[in-house]
Design brief:
Blueprint lengths: L10 E7 L6 H9 L4 E6 L10 H6 L3 E4 L6 H14 L4 E4 L10 H19 L3 E9 L2 E2 L14 E3 L7 E4 H7 L11 H11 L3 E10 L5 E4 L8 E2 L2 E2 L1 E4 L2 H17 L5 H21 L3 H16 L8 H8 L1
Parallel strand pairs: 1-2, 1-4, 2-3, 5-9
Antiparallel strand pairs: 4-8, 5-6, 5-8, 7-9, 10-13, 11-12
Helix pairs in contact: 5-6, 7-8, 7-9, 8-9
Length: about 325
């Protein structure tokens, strides 16, 4: 019996992959011990990835291969729809580079059980439970909710990796927004679920290992900065990701400008400084600026979906 049997509910994990590394099998083995089934959805990985996709099937994991790279939202939706068809009560979404600690899924299910016990008196229906911390740092994306619910910590949004989502929530709120492709997919889903009456909680004491981006030297205008006597670094995203981050952040800001002005303001504060650091520190400063400018323009005219091929080639060259 998997941990999903304690306290109750069938949990199926959905793991999107793209160019999976050689350690993925080990991470999936840890995951499989906690859930009832694992569905791996490869998002059009090219030949020559560090880990052969055939080895995933040989290890007993269900594998779905997309013909082309369509983004994490599309991959999540393929796996989530399959999980629902297979009778899941909960769907766990997990990035390929995330390591779950033992007991993680059980802790999330206990949080669901606690929430169900106080729903009648609190009026809060929890549809999503995520990790309390990432790499030892509290995952306070969007800040804690202000209302007090006994035994439950509520957040406005959280990272997609490690989310345990009730199928009841998925049936009402729908799946992930494929128009966003990548970046802000999790935030949009949390906000939409909230609009449909489902809150997000964090499981107390949980902590996952998750890569949050490449660390590169902090060199504003070519001058290396230091912290505690060591060369300072910052979290770097490629120009291609900068396009999606900019476009999708503004897209959501426009969607929620009137209904969630405080969320829009806090998100702007959260995103502006990292973008400015990228523009002045590099690498690829000119392409970073181009990605942000075009991403901004596309958000204003409501252009969504995959990045245009010509721009993709220019940002990736």
């Amino acid at each position: 019996m998997s941990e999903s049997g304690k306290p109750g509910g069938r949990v199926i994990a959905v793991v999107p992959t793209y160019r999976p590394d050689a350690m993925l099998l080990a991470r999936l083995d840890v995951l499989a011990a906690q859930v009832d089934a694992v569905i791996v959805v490869d998002d059009g990985s090219p030949a020559g990835s560090a880990l052969s996709l055939d080895s995933l099937q040989e290890a007993g994991f269900e594998l779905v291969q997309s013909a082309q790279n369509a983004g994490i939202a599309a991959a999540l939706n393929i796996g989530t729809a399959m999980a629902i068809e297979r009778g899941a009560d909960y769907v766990l979404t997990l990035d390929q580079d995330t390591v779950l600690p033992p007991g993680y899924v059980g802790a999330c299910l206990r949080t669901f059980a606690t929430a169900a016990g106080v729903a009648a008196t609190s009026g809060v229906v929890v549809g999503i439970v995520g990790t309390h911390s990432v790499n030892g740092i509290p995952a306070r994306v969007g800040g804690w909710h202000s209302e007090h619910v006994p035994g439950i910590e509520l957040v406005r949004e959280g990272i997609q990796s490690g989310m345990v989502i009730s199928v009841a929530c998925l049936r009402v709120a729908g799946l992930f927004d494929e128009r966003l492709v990548i970046d802000c997919v999790d935030g949009e889903f949390c906000l939409r679920s909230s609009d449909r009456g489902f809150a997000m909680a964090v499981a107390p004491g949980t902590d996952i290992e998750h890569s949050l981006g490449e660390q590169v030297p902090l060199r504003p205008f070519g001058i290396q900065r230091h912290a505690n006597g060591q060369p300072a670094t910052y979290e770097y995203h490629s120009p291609l990701r900068r396009y999606y981050i900019t476009r999708n952040t503004i897209d959501l800001a426009l969607r929620y400008a009137f209904t969630r002005p405080r969320w829009v303001a806090s998100t702007a504060r959260r995103e502006i400084f990292p973008a400015l650091v990228t523009f002045v520190s590099g690498p690829n400063r000119r392409r970073q600026v181009l990605a942000a400018v075009v991403g901004f323009a596309h958000a204003i005219v409501r252009r969504r979906g995959l990045i245009p091929g010509g721009l993709r080639r220019r940002l990736s060259s």
